[in-house]
Amino acid sequence: VRRVTALAGGIGGARFLRGLRAALADIHAEITVIGNTGDDITMHGLRICPDLDTVMYTLGGGIHEDQGWGRADETYTVKEELAAYDVGPTWFGLGDRDIATHLVRSQMLSAGYPLSDVTAALCARWQLGVALLPMSDDRVETHVVIDGDGQRRAVHFQEWWLHLHAGVPAQDFVFIGADEATPAPGVIDAIRNADVVLLPPSNPVVSIGSILAVPGIGDALRTTAAPVVGLSPIIGNAPVRGMADACLTAIGVETSAYAVAGHYGSRADQGILDGWLVDESDKDAADLLTEEGLPTRAIPLFMHDVDTAAAMATAALDVADEVRP
Ligand code: GDP
Ligand code: CA
Description:
By secondary structure, the chain is of the alpha/beta class. The chain is 39% helix and 20% strand. The chain contains 13 helices and 14 strands. It has helices at residues 11-23, 50-60, 77-84, 96-110, 115-126, 157-163, 187-192, 208-212, 217-223, 244-250, 257-264, 283-291, 306-323; strands at residues 2-8, 29-35, 41-43, 46-48, 131-134, 141-148, 151-156, 170-176, 196-199, 228-231, 234-235, 238-239, 275-279, 296-299. Strand 1 (2-8), helix 1 and strand 2 (29-35) form a beta-alpha-beta unit. The longest helix is centred in the C-terminal third of the chain and has 18 residues, at 306-323. It is globular. Bound molecules: guanosine-5'-diphosphate and calcium ion (CA).
C-alpha cells in the first residue's frame, strides 16, 4: 500500500489530484485529500463549500470542464428567480444542479452531522477514488482586509475574489475561527501515517495557507516521517489561472516559483518542504533552490489534460523517493 496525502484548494488542486489518481491507478494506493474550507460561505441559508465541491465534481466526473468549477450541463433558473426578487448577491454562480449539493449539505449540517461526515455522504455518490476530508469540522472563514474609502474593513474572501475580482488591493488575510479550530478527524493521521505528502499547485495563501492556519496541521507536516513535496502554481512569475499574484503581494511574497518555495520553506530550515517542482521555464529557480538546499526539479507544469497532470504527479512522487528523509 502506498499512502499518499495531499492538501488541496479548488481548481489547481482538483486537476492535479485527477492526475495523481491516474498515475497511481495501477498500484494499490490510498489517496487522502485534505481540502480547504476557508472559502466556505452561507448564502440563502445554504452552506457552500466551493473547494470541496470542485474536488468532488472534478474527481467524480461532474465538473464543468472549461470553467473548472461548478457542474457540467448547469442551468441557472433559481439564480434568475432570486434576481427577479431582487435578492442578491448576483456575483455568486449558484447553479441549479449545484444547489442540490448545497441543500443536502445544509440539511445534514442542521441535523447535527459534522462537515466531514457530510462530505463523505456527498462523495458516496461521486465515487472519487480518494478520501476527501475537510481541513476542519469547525467553521474557518478567510476574510480579506481592504481599504474601504479610507477605512480598513474586512470582507469575506468570496466577495473580494468574485465581486471585487481581487481588484481592490488586499492588505491582509485573516482566517476567522482558525485559532480555535481543530483538524477534522483523520487529518493529522493522514499526514503522520503517509508514505508521501504532496502540496498540489494550489493557491499558497488562500488555499494551502488557510489549511496551514488550522493548529496542528503545520506541525504535522514539519514532523511527519513522510517526504513533503510541492508543485508551483506560479509559472514564469504569473499564476496559471486566477489571481494568486494579488494574494502573494498582500503577504509580501513575490509572484515567482522561487519565492513561493521560500514562503513554504525547507523542512531542513523549519519549513514544510523536502522537495519542490517548478515549470521547465523556471529552470534557473530550480538550480538556485537546489543549491540553497531545497531539492527542486524543473518539468512541464501546465495541466493541459489528465495525462499532463499525471506526469506531474509521477515526477512529484519520484522527487519524494529521492528526498525521503
Ligand atoms: P481555487 O481554490 O479554485 O483557486 O484553486 P487552487 O487554490 O487549488 O488552485 C489555484 C492555483 O492553481 C492558481 O494559483 C493557479 O496558478 C494554479 N494552477 C491552475 N492551473 C494550473 C496548471 O495547469 N499548472 C500549474 N502549475 N498551476 C496551475
Ligand atoms: Ca478556493
